[in-house]
Amino acid sequence: MPLNNSFAELPPAFYTRLMPTPLPSPHFIVASSPAAALIGLDAADLARPDFVDLFTGNKVAPRSQPLSAVYSGHQFGVWAGQLGDGRAITLGDLATADGPMELQLKGAGRTPYSRMGDGRAVLRSSIREFLCSEAMAALGIPTTRALMLTGSPQGIARETMETAAVVTRMAPTFIRFGSFEHWESRGQHDELRLLADYVLKHFYPELLGADNPYKELLAEVTRRTARMIAGWQAVGFMHGVMNTDNMSILGLTLDYGPFGFMEAFDANHICNHTDSRGRYSYANQVPVGHWNCYALGNALLPLIGAPEVAEEALDVYRPEFGRQLDTLLHAKLGLNESREEDSALFDAMFGLLQANHADFTLFFRRLGELKLDEPAYDEPLRDLFIDRPAFDAWAATYRTRLRSEHSVDATRRAAMGRVNPKYVLRNYLAQTAIEQAQNGDFSGVHRLLAVLERPFDEQPENASYAALPPDWAAHLEVSCSS
Ligand code: AMP
Ligand code: MG
Q1: What is the mean pLDDT of the chain?
Q2: 74 by DSSP, 3-state: which?
Q3: Alpha-carbon distances, residue 127 vs 31, 106, 146, 168 (angstroms)
Q4: Residue 69: which region, alpha, beta or left (left: phi > 0; alpha: psi -120 to 50)?
């Protein structure tokens, strides 16, 4: 594998070169075919011992110069100072038809940025990151990718004793908002400029000719962040830890930890058990995305110049988010035209979902089955609501709206089926696959991956994966522990 390391063009202050720390008896767990295809590999080959060694960090490709990067960040709204890749090691980047793709091992051992951590990741959280990265990609939401997952019997101490795993992640770059905050917070504006110029040259070359490329960079990252979060809201994805060190400079969903998918709808739902105040609740993701862009804007200010100029760049957030969510909601409801009254229809829908705690994914999927002239056909949809008359009233308004644009049942159903997933990574599905894997059986992970790679397909043979969570799932708690 001819690995470059373009990040190493930057001076040594940006990273530490180091080798991954080997793990005993590494074994293959799973690989993603679509992710492998992005770098011209066949997932079946990845089970070979040489790839297992390479992607556990037990062997290093010749000429590759692995490194861990430094960054800082705001955690839960509070300045946290220096963080950095405490357990991630970048092997290098591969040239692909769509540009460079960086390969990074997560859980490959201690680094100078590990602070109190052990540099490892446990099997449980690594399965979650692996599956969700690939699930999000299949949903069409910008994300880092997961190429492969390996495990080792090495014991790792968390609340209980667990075992080690390594996820090989891929992205054009893993540079974060916090990578910029790092240099600004230290008053090191030369380094700040080098980093911004690096990002512009490699990932936003079209902005280089602008009068103020740094302002345009902020505006474009802000736009991408707004669109990414609109994508999250539309599928009910909750990141759980939207700290600025987990915000990608490319607008990719990054660092999967205590994430969740909305089930019984509650706009104030908090998926991360550690987030007691709900800073990163479903509804708060939208303003927090903006807040994080402000943190980036503040970091870029020495390059941008005047605060008013940075403000102008940041002002794109609300309109971009609004437009994107509006587009996505129209598609989710199978509406071809955009009308003034639609925002009232959407608000009433969210109010209804909130009051009834209806399952988010099932609601939109079943809504696609609705027939304009056969209300009796609504039963499975109607069953999601405790307050049936309230549902009937909303459905009547929705039908009227559909009729007004001469909507055709079959056409609308097909279109809605392409945007409203049947399968998302519900916590209980992940948990079931994890418990099996912890007992040495990875077939559940394989099967779940296959289901999530085709979230919009009916897959009747996998219908059980679309079911409401069982009662035991109500007690599942997902925390930052990983
Ligand atoms: P996260 O909350 O996962 O985004 O991590 C925040 C910071 O803690 C990052 O700098 C991580 O690299 C670091 N970190 C998390 N877990 C570990 C670990 N087990 N060992 C070393 N560093 C870690
Ligand atoms: Mg992180």
Answers
A1: 97
A2: strand
A3: 11, 12, 10, 11
A4: beta
The string of pLDDT tens digits covering residues 403-454 is: 999 999 999 999 999 999 999 999 999 999 999 999 999 999 999 999 999 9
What is the model's pTM?
0.98
Residue 63 has a pLDDT of: 81
Q: What percent of the chain has pLDDT over 90?
A: 96
What is the distance between the alpha carbons of residues 178 and 73, in angstroms, rounded to a whole number?
4
Which residues, by Cβ under 5 Å, contact ligand 2, an ion?
246, 255
Task: Report the C-alpha gap between 50 and 230 in whole angstroms.
Answer: 40
Helix (H) or strand (E) holding 38: helix 33-38
Res. 474 pLDDT band, cuts 50 70 90 = confident
Active site residue 245: yes
Q: How far is the CA of 158 from the centre of ligand 1 (A)?
A: 13
- Pull the structure tokens for residue 397: 């308004």
Determine contact, residues 317/221, Cβ cutoff 8 Å: no
pLDDT of amino acid 435: 98
pLDDT in tens, 237-248: 999 999 999 999
Query: In angstroms, what is the span from residue 242 Cα to ligand 2's centroid?
Result: 9
122-136 CB burial, b ≥16 within 10 A, e <16: bbbbbbbbbbbbbbb
Torsion over CA of 380, 452, 223 and 90, rounded to 10 degrees? 160
Closest ligand by atom to 112 CA: 1
Is there an atom of ligand 1 within 6 Å of 87 CB? yes
Domain boundaries, the chain: 6-174, 178-327, 335-417
